[in-house]
Amino acid sequence: MVKRVTKTERERVQKILDLLDEHYTREYKCYLNYETPWQLLIAVILSAQCTDARVNIVTKDLFQKYHTVEAFANAEQKELENDIHSTGFYKNKAKNIILCAKRLIEVYGGEVPRTLEELTSLAGVGRKTANVIRGNIYNEPSIVVDTHVKRISRKLGFTKEEDPEKIEYDLMKVLPKEHWILYNIQIITHGRGLCTARNPKCEECFLRELCKEK
After folding, report:
1. Which residue among 60, 74, 211, 213 is buried most deeply as judged by most CB within 10 Å?
2. Residue 1: its pLDDT value, please?
3. Which has the closest alpha carbon to 186: 202, 204, 201, 206?
4. What is the DSSP letter of 179?
5. Is the pLDDT assigned to residue 145 strictly greater than 60?
6. Does residue 1 sit within a domain?
7. Following DSSP, what letter does each residue of 131-164 receive, concatenated?
């Protein structure tokens, strides 16, 4: 049975979104550096269990060395492992990047596909990565459940789930579709600045009165 969102709860959600817009603007911002869709795809694969800042350091040289999808498809795995070593889980990431690049060429003519089904058919690409691509490249309304979105959405009472996919579906019910991409960006910013995991600055938080965990 699908839980219905009450009028009171919708009004509370809108207050939260208005405050997020006020403090973080409605500007679309991606924290990973890229110039092409395939570069973003590879950067997101590298970002698993790694900070965006570290990924940006690695991809600065990586995208100069491997400047096409074909270059990644033809890369030597051991060499690529060395190139991305500092991002962690480098063996799996190198393997997935090569397989992903090969499938992009063989099935999609070197272009990054846009549907969830097509994207998740690529090696190393789950729902989170697929939604990053759909939101940032194709402006398709999508919700990316990273650690910040998971933690803060639970604090705000938008979900009680632990599983990222279940959280995604809960947020799709609660949030207006036109705010899905923005919510991702704003909550990540909020989680890095005020509502940090270890030492949240609750006394400074503009959402304090609306937080279910205050």
Report:
1. 211
2. 40
3. 206
4. G
5. yes
6. no
7. HHHHHHTT--------HHHHHHHHHTTS----SH
Is 100 one of the annotated binding-site residues?
no
The answer to whether residue 4 scores a pLDDT higher than 80 is no
Q: How far is 112 from 98, CA to CA, in rounded Å? A: 14
* Cα–Cα distance, 170 to 186 (Å, whole number): 18
Give the catalytic positions in this structure.
128, 146
Residues 110, 179, single domain; the answer is: no
List pLDDT tens digits, range 60-85: 999 999 999 999 999 999 999 999 99
- The model's confidence at residue 2, banded by pLDDT at 50, 70 and 90, is very low
Please check whether residues 119 and 177 belong to one and the same domain. Answer: no
Question: Residues 62, 91: one domain?
Answer: yes
Tell me: pLDDT of 107 over 60.
Answer: yes
181: nearest Cα among 133, 142, 137, 129: 142
